[in-house]
């Protein structure tokens, strides 16, 4: 399985708009090779909020096809770009147990509306 970890810096003024936009990634549920995405907030000492989102994909090939064909279309439609101060994306290969552990991070206050599962 491929894990995509997305860490976004968001200032407090844009937190609600970011959250609304993040809740609009439901189109992922119909993308071939997508398994699940979940995320939430982690507060930082400098009054910024950090959004952490974990996406689980069947394979790197499925993820690459999504990035090439669907990602930018969805991203533009939900207008999330203006709400993000910084973004860091990391990709890693894990087994099913590793994916489950990442999706249950106790340091994150998960937002139910951010969870997307395969249709």
UniProtKB/TrEMBL annotation:
Ranges of residues in domain DUF4937: 2-91
Pfam families linked to this entry: DUF4937
Protein name per its UniProtKB record: YdbC family protein
